[in-house]
Structure formats: structure tokens, C-alpha cells
Amino acid sequence: MKRYLVAWFIGLPILLVMLPAALVYFFSSPPGSEGLPQVSAPNNPAVHQSAIEVKVYRTAKQAVETMPLETYIEGVVAAEMPAEFELEALKAQAMAARTYIIRRLDAKKFDDVPKGAQVTDTVKHQVFLDEAQRKQNWGDQFEWKNTRIRQAVQATAGVVLTYGGKPIDATFFSTSNGFTENANEYFEEPVPYLKSVASPWDIQSPSFEKTVKIAAADLEQRLGIKLTKEASGNGSWYRIVERTTGNRVGKISIGGKEFSGREFREKLGLQSSAFTLELRGNEVHITTKGYGHGVGMSQWGANGMAKAGKSAEQIVKYFYQGIALENCDLILKG
Questions:
Q1: Name one GO biological process term (predicted).
Q2: What one-character-per-residue DSSP string does 229-267 give?
Q3: Residue 76, number of CB atoms within 10 A of its CB
Q4: Is 285 within 8 Å of 213 (Cβ atoms)?
């Protein structure tokens, strides 16, 4: 009898420890899939095998290549975000890239690409690198980088970002000036989920601040103005008329003309519309903060959030306000 009691007192604590662990093991989501819509696929329930194919115009070859959706997403993530970034940031990028192409397929408007294609492999849409190009670019680092990209894509396979049941305009850019931008303050049209949010992590980006020098005569030619040196009340030769919610230049007055921050940036080829000017002799020194249009997801911000322990879902829901995560097959069937 004592033998059974000893066995019972030894076995009970072990049972109490093992039972919860077993329940967690059998009923938890697959690793890396926390919060993401789950879809079934043969042999591996964590990987979605969609029948969707994408027709990509390969610019260098001047030919259309058809490939599975997730193969296309791997090539986009590999081209658009450094493989060294945190895995959760890469997952966020994969969802944004997948949403972009699903939005195009859902709209069925391909008049901006050669006949027979649905998207190009350039910055006009999304940059895409096939496996051969990745091997050439990455050299002896190809295996680990490619594996990392594939892991991020497969962990989010089939997941797109939606607002009101439709794929969002999942814009993204490299580096903010510390804030993202309201869509209407750069692209003119308001978008409910593209609102300005703080992104302090971007200060780690090598593109956070940059100063370029432009000859005053060159600046005059590009802007179609004549610089004046008469001093205003504060001695300035230009004036910031308006600032945006994201602390970029909304409007600038210079040489008797007024430009939007976007116009000024694009005419001078600047990294950002967050800038300051300094006239030194016959040169204009322009210091920019950030890299890109500033609307949507900051890639360096996403990486900073991932380093701080945020999940891919938390990242995309931060940069794209009020969105949901859905299965891409259901979107195209809807």
C-alpha cells in the first residue's frame, strides 16, 4: 500500500506539470503564425498553397513570366527589404507586398504594363528579383538570406491587409523623419488607414539624415526661379509656408514662387520632403531627414518595432490604422 502511495505522490506533481504543457502543444497555433489567419494546405497546415499565379513583366528580358503567388512575394521581399532585418519586419513586408499584388489582381487594371502582364519587376510597381539574381547579388550569403526570406513569406502565406473587406493600398518606404505622413498631405487624396504616426526607430537608418550640395545656378534652373538675397525680417532667402502633420515641408516659397514639399523634393531629386536649406556662397546645402514619400509603413520603423519585440501583425496594424488580416483567396473570390 505504501508503495502505491509513494508512486501517487511522485506521479501527481509530474502529471500536473505535463498536462498543461501537452494542452499547449496540441492546441496552440503553428510557430510564427500567431494572430494570422490560418488556412489549410496539404501536409503542412501552416503554409498556404494558393492557386493564384502572377504574370510578371521581366524588364531586362522583355518577356512575361508566370509564377506562383508566393514565389513572386519571395522575389519582392528579397528586393525591397534587407534580408538582415528582423524576421517580424520581413513578415510585415511580405504581407504588404502580397496585399499590393492582390489589390492589382482584384482591380483587374493592367493598362500600365505590357500586354499579357499584370505587374512589372521595377519600382513602378514592386521590385522583383528571381533566384538567379539573388544568387548573383548575395554571393556566398545566398543560402541563409534566401532561407530567411522564404521563412518570412511562408509564415504569412496567403495573408493580406484589408480595410472594409478590400485590399489596402499598402504603401511603404525606407526611412521616416521620425513620423509617417498623412496620405492626403503627400498624395493629395485622403486614405482612412494611412495616417501619420510616430516612428522614432528610424534614427538608426543610415539614410536618416543626408546633406547634398547643389550649385545655386543649377537650383535656379531646376526650379525655374531666380534667387534673391534681400533680407526679410529674419534674414531668410526662403520661407516655409506650411508644415505637414508628419513635420515635413508642406509648402515652400523661394525665388518668388511657391512649391509643395513634394514638388520641391522631386524637382531636386531629394531623399525626402523633410528638409532645411542653407545658402553658402554659390552653393545651396540641403539637409534631408528620412528617405521616401513617408506614407504607410516605414521599413526601418518596422525593423525597430521588431527589435523591440513587436509581432508582424502589431507592426502592420500600427502603420496601417484600423486594418484587418484576411485570406487572399477569399478576397479574389468575393
A1: sporulation resulting in formation of a cellular spore
A2: ----TTS-SEEEEEE-TTSSEEEEEETTEEEEHHHHHHH
A3: 27
A4: yes
Q: Which residue has the cell 513569406?
A: 153
pTM over 0.90: no
C-alpha 141/C-alpha 130 separation (Å) is 16
User: Cell numbers 472594409 label which residue?
Assistant: 164
Rounded distance between C-alpha atoms, residue 130 and residue 138, angstroms: 12
DSSP code, position 63: E
pLDDT digits (tens, 9 = 90+) for 111-124: 999 999 999 999 99
* Residue whose entry in the numeric block shows the C-alpha cell 521563412: 151
Report the amino acid identity of residue 88.
E
Residue with cell 498536462: 19
Which DSSP string do the residues of 55-66 spell out, in sequence order?
A: EEEETTTTEEEE
Instruction: Convert the pLDDT of each residue in 262-321 to its tens digit.
Output: 999 999 999 999 999 999 999 999 999 999 999 999 999 999 999 999 999 999 999 999
Cα(318)–Cα(140) distance, rounded to whole angstroms? Answer: 36
Q: For residues 120 and 111, is the Cβ–Cβ distance under 8 A? A: no
CB count within 10 Å of CB 186 equals: 23
pLDDT tens digits, one per residue of 155-174: 999 999 999 999 999 999 99
Q: How many CB atoms lie within 10 A of CB 189?
A: 9
Three-class DSSP category at 86: coil
**157 SS3 class:** coil
What phi and psi, each to the nearest 5 degrees, are found at residue 228?
A: -115, 145
- Give the pairing of strands 119-120 and 53-58: parallel
* Contact call for residues 151 and 313 (beta carbons, < 8 A): no
Neighbours of 116 (CB within 10 A): 11
The three grid cell numbers given for residue 324, joined into one nine-digit string: 484587418
Sequence-distant (6+) residues with CB within 8 A of 180 are 195, 196, 197, 199, 246, 294, 295, 296, 297, 298, 301, 319
Residue type, 31: P
